[in-house]
Amino acid sequence: MITFSTDISKIEKERVYQFLSEVSGRLEGLPPQALDTVLNNSICFGAYLPSGEQVAFARVITDKLTFAYLCDLFVFEEHRGKGLSKHLLEEVLSHPNVKEVQSIGLATPDAHDLYSQYGFVRVDPSERLMVRFNKHISSTH
């Protein structure tokens, strides 16, 4: 059974840093300590096996009312193909500091199909940017 947590003390920092610096390129060229800044200034989500091993990660940068930016959602390679990205995305979108936000943006090079299942639409069909608007949230909120 997979459990989810926003407790950053549970995050396997070395593995997450390695992914973000070597695979996604988000932290490429930055020292490992840069991850602490990223973690401390985001709402971070981890997915964990009963053993405590981390299998997935995501983070959201938000003002908790008008806008959020979803980034760095990934599943470690050995755990892919099990629907974990969908479960993690559902956890993110149902979090109290995310679910009522007016719009959520993200950029993806290749996961448009995943995100479109959750209401995200491309800003420009030729680009990576996608956005999700909460239609039930008033713009005068």
In angstroms, what separates the terminal alpha carbons? 38 Å
The total strand number stands at 7
Helix share, percent: 10-25%
Task: Give the ordered list of helices and strands.
Answer: EHHEEEHEHEE
Task: Describe what you observe in this structure.
With 141 residues, the protein is an alpha+beta fold. 24% of the residues lie in helices and 28% in strands. It is built from 4 helices and 7 strands. It has helices at 13-23, 34-40, 84-94, 112-116, and strands spanning 3-5, 43-48, 54-62, 67-75, 103-107, 121-122, 129-133. Strands 1-2-3-4-5-7-6 form a 7-stranded mixed sheet. The longest helix is centred in the N-terminal third of the chain and has 11 residues, at 13-23. The mean pLDDT is 92.
Keywords:
7 strands; 4 helices; 28% strand; 141 residues
In short:
The chain is α+β, with helices and mostly antiparallel strands and 141 residues long.
Produce the secondary structure layout:
Elements: E1 3-5, H1 13-23, H2 34-40, E2 43-48, E3 54-62, E4 67-75, H3 84-94, E5 103-107, H4 112-116, E6 121-122, E7 129-133
Parallel strand pairs: 4-5
Antiparallel strand pairs: 1-2, 2-3, 3-4, 5-7, 6-7
